[in-house]
Structure formats: structure tokens, C-alpha cells
Please model this.
Amino acid sequence: MRIRRFKLFPALIASAMLMTGLGACTLASAGNDGAPLPDPTVDAALPQGDQVAVLAGGCFWGLQDVFEHVKGVKKVWAGYSGGDARTADYDRVSDGDTGHAESVKIVYDPTKVSYGQLLKVYFSVATDPTQLNRQGPDAGTQYRGVIFYGNDDQKRIATAYIAQLSAAHAFADPIVTQVVPLKGFYPAESYHQDYAKRHPDEPYIVINDAPKVVHLKQQFPTLYQPDREVVSVTLH
Model:
């Protein structure tokens, strides 16, 4: 049973998480010397129209909240990627044997934020790329770090940036984030969408997810937006 599923005695749970360190926000923003991550040396040429990125790395509540605060992002859905449509529901994915990872689908305006910049945010504040099949208090293959590329450009940019960070020894431990082709994205149940925004006082959110948004604002002041723009975007 995952920590965030507990509903009883939330204050006691929060205290226990803090004492054990399980709830500490795992930040990937600093290398061995605490320096910010470098900009990607390989990025996309300016494409036409809105673009889509699908990323996984820990609980999708936090991922969605982070990217909804990035300028140029129009819409973010929480969902599942990596497995089949028939197993794309929360209870099945929670078993850890479906091949799915909790993911987010990001629709963004490439004239305002590039794919490479999204990956820098991803590695800097949204996930710790050195944790294998887990993020913070959440363990299992459904929490693995994955960049699901939708085309050759995204694959090229993602693999180049991981190679760049590895060569620079940006992290003390090896990067274990996977780069795999996107086969499908399946939206999560409605009660998972914008969960962090709708439950800001829940201990799991306070301890694990809210600090990521704070660090986004600190590290990316020109990309940070207090509230995501309200736009109508159809999931397809």
C-alpha cells in the first residue's frame, strides 16, 4: 500500500514521513557541486503548432502540478503510458505489473517553451533521474522515470541531454531514466486530474509535491507562471 493512499491520521502520517525522510522532496536540480543543470546543447528547431511531450517519473500528481506552472504549457493530463489500454486504470497500475508508468501528457506552445527546456525542468525539479523504479516514498515500476518520445527529434534531444548530463557528472549517481517510444497515453481517472491543486493541504502534497513548484519558481523565474493559462485543448 502506498503512503499517499492512507486517509487516517494525516498529521501523524506527515510527521512519520518527515522523521524517516520518506517525504523529502527529491530534487534533481543540483549536481555534485550544487550548480544548476546546464541548458541542453541539442534542442528542437521551431516546429509549427502545438506540440506534445509525455513524461513519467514518480507520482503523476506532482508532475502535473509542476508542468502546469511552466509558461507555454497549455494543458497537462495525468495518465498512464507504457502498457495496454485494458490495464490503464489506477488499481491495476498500482500492482506494478502492467508495464505502465504514471505519466503526464503535456501540450505546449514551442514558441514559448522548447522540448529541451521541458526536459531541463523535468530533470531539475520534477524528478530525480538517479532513482530506479521509485521516486521518494513511492516504489515500483509504475514510478520509474521515462521519457516517452513521440518522434525522432524528441528521441534525439532526450538521448543527447542525458549524455550531456552524464558527461558533465551532473549527478553523483548514474542517470537511469529510460528513453522509449510512445505507444499510447491513457488519461487517468477524473479524481486524479489536478489533484495537487484540489488538495493542497493533503500531507503527501505538502511534503512531496508543493516543494517542487517552489523550486521551479526559484530556478526558472522566467518560465514560471503562478497559474496555468485556462485554454480549451482536446485530448487526442
Remarks:
- Residues 3-219 form a domain with the Peptide Methionine Sulfoxide Reductase; Chain A fold (CATH 3.30.1060.10).
